[in-house]
Amino acid sequence: MIFTNISILDENMQLQENMYVGIKNEKIDYIGKEMPFTDYGESYPGKGKLLMSGFYNTHAHSPMTLLRGYGENLALQAWLNERIFPFEAKLDGNAVYWGTMLAMAESLRFGIVSTTDMYYFCEDMVKAIEQAGTKDNVGRGVTNFTDSDLYSLESFSEMKALYGNYHNTAGGRIKIDMSLHAEYTSNPKTVQQMAAYTKAIGANMHVHVSETKLEHEECKARHNGMTPIQYFNDLGLLDSKTTAAHCVWVEPEDMDIMKEKGVTVASNPISNLKLASGVCNVPELLKRGINVSIGTDSVSSNNSLDFIEEMKIFAISSKEKYQDPTAVTPTETLYAATRAGALSQGREDCGKLAVGYKADVIVLDIMKPNFVPVHDMVNNIVYSACGGDVVLTMVDGKVLYKDGVYTTIDLEKTMFETNKATKNIISQL
């Protein structure tokens, strides 16, 4: 495909107008002011449109689309124990497949090209993701409330098989991460064994960290004053490339460790605000040079996958919390939503609009009232745009969504089957 006369947000987050961008063999092959001589096939007229990198959602539980709006206005523990856990206990592979497919449809609609997921029934997730054509770092979450050896756990066996069967499949679109759920859902032996195994196979680690003050303080009480980050570091978990979700209550010493270990923080602003967990100290993390990306968390604690909405809250929540209107700039926000997320997933050739990078791109319709006037396009994208402005989403050079039409997903069937699976579970509760 060749995008013609289109505005672009280049690899330096700079606006360039009336550009030509050629896509070839899954990658961005040409960016320039002149129409290239190479035949790129279909032409996309870009007048009134903006081409930029797609978004990387670095913390999610995609099948939980099934729980959208289920269990509202409850405190976290009541929300989990009275609504979420009983519902999840009734899940099966079919429900997870359709819930994942719905999440992929919603992701594409809002410009998300890749997701970092933690859940179970992961083979069914992989099947849906592969068919949808999206990218995903899938992790089978591991918990252990007993003294059992990690290697005897069914969840570990599933995780190990998942990695062996699906890591770097579908042309590299699907990657398998190791996923320890959290400090409070495991024990030191489990953490240590997970750390050793993950490091031995060279995988990524995905873990919940310091999401709530209670979680953070109870960890310190259990482990001689060590915070979750200090505890995980002591047991070797952070020796592997790690994405730490939330990090709302991390302390200065934790940040020193995260910087040293190259940990990515996946901030989930809407979920953390909605569950009253707090606001991640993104300004300080960025000041220390820590890679910060953006996640939606689950649709049950967020309610949508509108990533542009997530970016806006990511930027403005820190301004209010830390009483600094200069905290977290629009450019830092866009970087977190794109390149930082791709790097956290181990996708080195993704996350920016540059020749040689994967063609994971989106098109925004900028001929709308909310985009006029344009004093600074980056400001408009972060503060003025909405998810509905996305009109095309491309992954590995393939158009998966365009002007309301999906090329890989039967949306009507997906919504029908998701509703059916949800009603079946509710009937059992």
Overview of the structural elements:
The chain is of the alpha/beta class and 429 residues long. Strand 8 (135-142), helix 4 and strand 9 (174-180) form a beta-alpha-beta unit. Helix 2 packs parallel to helix 3, helix 2 (93-109) crosses helix 16 (411-428) and helix 13 (330-337) crosses helix 15. The chain is built from 16 helices and 17 strands. The mean pLDDT is 97. 39% of the residues lie in helices and 23% in strands. The protein folds into two domains: 2-53 and 357-406, Urease, subunit C, domain 1, CATH 2.30.40.10; 59-344, TIM Barrel (Alpha-Beta Barrel), CATH 3.20.20.140. The strands form two sheets. Strands 1, 2, 3, 4, 5, 14, 15, 16 and 17 form a nine-stranded mixed sheet that branches. It holds the Pfam family Amidohydro_1.
Give me a quick take on this structure.
This protein is an alpha/beta fold and 429 residues long. It is built from 16 helices and 17 strands.
